[in-house]
């Protein structure tokens, strides 16, 4: 059942036609929100019908030819423990009835059937089924929240934020302690594609790619998979996999291409160990990924094979990288320009060949670009376009000049005073959007994109301007609408939940009580007394 209003399905099983007819006409099935979906004259036929129609309730005679009621129940309950069995028994069959209850029957009634007693019994059965459904929905909600929290946690640690680890000591003995490697999957020409897609098309495409990647991951032993930057997904594989990393990457590319018609590339890191190493292996996989710059699109690139750091003749200038990152963080253009000059002198002093020099610069550029992205300083700036520009410049001098200009312009943009009116206007726009779409499954990525801000920047500004976090404001809008409905209508509480964005009525009630200090029913009763 997808909605509470859907009817529960009932199967009648009895070898006496007169009892079947009386059950069909004497019970107010519509009032019970139930419908008869089948009837059988013996247990064998019932067994086949149960597999075909998957009923919720079975009303069965306890003594029947071929297969009796208890045998029927023993056969089907192990496959579906939520099935409600109600047995009809004769006065001389008390032992059978007691045995039925011991084996898991919901209840039994004696012949001749008291229809009022049966109706009361069915109401109790409906209550049990409603509670089971609500529990299932609650578990689904918890599982979804758990999955989202897990994805956020992995993304935060990959970005280098160790704070989640402080509260998640249970992960110390997780599957990542046994060794793993990372694959970064990115759609080719992502910025070109998103320029062609509307916001809704982009959401649908990314949702489709995510489903493809997740299904592929389930079939290939992936430990976890989560979206990272736009158009990019991270997969973590156990280090013990016998399949070669290149073969895995090629298989993944083929799968995405087959089902989406979109091409992608995969960068794969070397093996590591421990969840705290996510932020260390991500740059390795990302740097490997951008080696496609030399080989064309839709490829698999492994950092051990392509990384300049693995070349024994040329040492990667890690200290210069660290200093350049600091110049980005402090928005210091002069320092950055001087450091790029140092980088050029370093390459020149070692007489590094052009191809190796380009690879070194690509690794450096990828790292710096990611830091610009994290600080929301790379709006409308294509990494692929920057790498292509470097590739077509003939000399080291021209490359270093281009880098100083490109990165310098972004630093200048970041140094400009923030236009508070424009910022407030963007946040107000997102508030109106939330107020109009609170009943939908809103994501923070969707709303921050509307504001043309990175997720982290949006979170900071939204809290500063509104006083709410994103989730707090969505909940506030939902609760205000729920109060309005409670005050102005007689709509049932469980019907209000989906109207304000909650598929689980019990969870809605919990959130409402936490926000208002009252259950929805208590709130409605108090308001009614005040009006009267």
Automatic annotation (TrEMBL):
The modification 4-aspartylphosphate is found at residue 61. CDD domains: REC_YesN-like (cd17536). Transmembrane segments: none annotated. The keyword Nucleotide-binding does not apply. The keyword Transcription applies. Residues 9-126 form the Response regulatory domain. It holds the Pfam family GGDEF_2. SMART domains: HTH_ARAC, REC. Keywords: DNA-binding, Phosphoprotein, Transcription, Transcription regulation. SUPFAM superfamilies: CheY-like, Homeodomain-like. Gene3D superfamilies: 3.40.50.2300, Homeodomain-like (1.10.10.60). Residues 428-526 form the HTH araC/xylS-type domain. This is Regulator of RpoS.
């Amino acid at each position: 059942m997808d909605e509470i209003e859907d009817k529960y399905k009932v199967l009648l099983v009895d070898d006496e036609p007169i009892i079947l007819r009386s059950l069909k006409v004497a019970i107010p099935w519509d009032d019970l929100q139930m419908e008869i979906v089948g009837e059988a004259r013996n247990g064998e036929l019932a067994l086949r019908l149960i597999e075909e129609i998957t009923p919720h309730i079975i009303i069965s005679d306890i003594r029947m030819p071929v297969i009796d009621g208890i045998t029927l129940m023993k056969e089907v309950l192990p496959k579906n423990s939520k099935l409600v069995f109600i047995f009809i028994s004769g006065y001389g069959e008390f032992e059978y009835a007691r045995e039925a209850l011991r084996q898991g029957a919901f209840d039994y009634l004696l012949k001749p059937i008291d229809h009022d007693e049966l109706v009361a019994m069915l109401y109790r059965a409906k209550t049990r089924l409603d509670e089971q459904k609500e529990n299932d929905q609650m578990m689904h909600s918890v599982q979804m929240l758990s999955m989202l929290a897990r994805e956020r946690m992995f993304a935060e640690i990959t970005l280098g934020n160790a704070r989640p680890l402080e509260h998640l000591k249970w992960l110390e003995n997780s599957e990542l302690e046994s060794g793993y490697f990372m694959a970064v999957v990115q759609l080719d020409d992502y910025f070109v594609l998103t320029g062609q897609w509307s916001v809704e098309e982009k959401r649908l495409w990314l949702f489709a790619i995510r489903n493809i990647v997740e299904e592929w991951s389930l079939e290939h032993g992936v430990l976890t998979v989560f979206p990272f930057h736009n158009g990019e997904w991270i997969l973590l594989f156990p280090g013990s996999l016998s399949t070669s990393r290149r073969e895995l990457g090629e298989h993944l590319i083929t799968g995405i291409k087959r089902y989406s018609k979109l091409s992608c590339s995969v960068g794969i890191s070397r093996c590591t160990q421990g969840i705290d190493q996510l932020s260390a292996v991500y740059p390795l996989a990302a740097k490997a990924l951008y080696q496609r710059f030399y080989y064309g699109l839709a490829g698999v690139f492994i950092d051990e094979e392509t990384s300049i750091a693995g070349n024994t003749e040329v040492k990667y200038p890690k200290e210069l990288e660290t200093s350049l990152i600091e110049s980005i963080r402090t928005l210091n253009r002069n320092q950055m320009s001087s450091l790029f000059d140092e980088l050029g002198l370093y390459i020149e002093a070692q007489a590094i060949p052009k191809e190796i020099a380009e690879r070194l610069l690509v690794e450096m550029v990828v790292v710096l670009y990611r830091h610009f992205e994290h600080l929301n300083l790379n709006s409308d700036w294509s990494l692929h376009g920057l790498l292509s520009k470097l590739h077509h410049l003939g000399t080291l001098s021209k490359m270093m000049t281009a880098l100083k200009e490109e990165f310098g312009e972004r630093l200048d943009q970041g140094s400009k005073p923030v236009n508070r009116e424009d910022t407030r206007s963007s946040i107000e726009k997102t508030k109106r959007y939330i107020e109009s779409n609170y009943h939908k499954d809103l994501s923070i990525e969707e709303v921050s994109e509307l504001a043309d801000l990175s997720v982290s920047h949006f979170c900071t500004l939204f809290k500063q301007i509104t006083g709410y976090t994103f989730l707090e404001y969505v909940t506030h809008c939902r609760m205000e609408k729920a109060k309005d409905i409670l005050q102005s209508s007689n709509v049932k509480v469980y019907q209000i939940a989906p109207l304000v964005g909650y598929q689980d009525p019990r969870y809605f009630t919990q959130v409402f009580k936490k926000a208002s200090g009252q259950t929805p029913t208590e709130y409605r009763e108090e308001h009614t007394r005040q009006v009267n």
